[in-house]
C-alpha cells in the first residue's frame, strides 16, 4: 500500500505542476490582454484546485502510513536533526498545506471577483505564490534539502 501511494503521489505531482503552470499562464495572458474570463478559464481554475486537493489527500494518506514520518513523530528529538526525517515529517507537509490553502483561497477569490481582469489578476497572483511554494517544497532529484527520484515505479 505504501509503495503504491508513494508512486501515485509522485505521478500526480506532474499533473499538479502541469495544471498550475497552465492555469498561471492563462491567468497572466488573460490579465495582460484584457481577455474575457471564459467558461474554459473557470474550468481551468476549478480543475487545477481540484487536482491540488486530490494530491493533498494522497499526501495525507501517505503521511499517515509513512515509516519515515512514523520515525519522525516517535523520535522527534533525534529526527528533527536528520534532514530527510525533518523534511518529510515537518517541512514538506507544512509547506504543501500552505500551498493548498493559498491555491484554495486564490480559486475562491477569483471566482467571486466582479470583473474579468480582477479574476485573472487574483488567479495569477495566488496560483503563482502556491506554485512557488510547491516548487521549493518538492524533493527534487537536485534539491539541497533532500532528494528523491523524479519518477517512481508502482
Topology, number of strands: 0
What's the total helix number?
6
Distance N to C terminus: 10 Å
Oligomer category: single chain
Give the overall pLDDT as a whole number. 94
What structural class is derived from the secondary structure elements?
mainly alpha
What count of structural domains? Answer: 1
Main beta-sheet strand count, sense and barrel state: none
Beta fraction of the residues? under 5%
C-alpha geometry = elongated
Radius of gyration based on Cα positions: 17 Å
Keywords: Membrane, Transmembrane, Transmembrane helix
Transmembrane segments: 6-25, 46-65, 85-108, 120-142
Protein name: Cytochrome B
Organism: Parapedobacter defluvii
Notable characteristics:
single chain; 154 residues; mainly alpha; 6 helices; 80% helix; elongated; membrane; transmembrane
What does this structure look like?
The chain has 154 residues and is mainly alpha-helical. The chain has one domain (2-137). The chain has helices at residues 2-33, 39-65, 67-74, 76-79, 83-112, 116-137. Helix 2 (39-65) runs antiparallel to helix 5 (83-112), helix 3 packs across helix 5 (83-112) and helix 5 runs antiparallel to helix 6 (116-137). The model has no long low-confidence stretch (mean pLDDT 94).
What would a concise description of this structure say?
With 154 residues, the protein is mainly α. The chain has helices at 2-33, 39-65, 67-74, 76-79, 83-112, 116-137.
Amino acid at each position: 500500500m505504501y509503495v503504491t501511494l508513494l508512486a501515485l503521489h509522485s505521478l500526480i505531482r506532474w499533473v499538479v505542476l502541469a495544471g498550475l503552470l497552465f492555469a498561471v499562464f492563462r491567468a497572466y495572458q488573460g490579465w495582460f490582454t484584457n481577455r474575457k474570463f471564459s467558461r474554459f478559464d473557470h474550468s481551468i481554475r476549478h480543475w487545477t484546485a481540484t487536482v491540488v486537493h486530490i494530491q493533498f489527500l494522497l499526501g495525507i494518506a501517505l503521511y499517515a502510513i509513512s515509516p519515515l514520518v512514523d520515525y519522525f513523530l516517535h523520535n522527534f528529538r533525534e529526527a528533527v536533526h536528520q534532514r530527510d526525517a525533518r523534511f518529510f515529517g515537518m517541512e514538506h507537509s507544512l509547506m504543501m498545506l500552505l500551498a493548498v490553502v493559498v491555491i484554495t483561497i486564490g480559486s475562491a477569490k477569483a471566482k467571486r471577483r466582479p470583473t474579468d481582469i480582477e479574476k485573472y489578476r487574483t488567479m495569477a497572483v495566488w496560483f503563482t505564490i502556491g506554485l512557488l511554494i510547491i516548487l521549493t517544497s518538492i524533493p527534487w532529484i537536485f534539491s539541497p534539502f533532500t532528494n528523491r527520484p523524479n519518477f517512481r515505479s508502482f
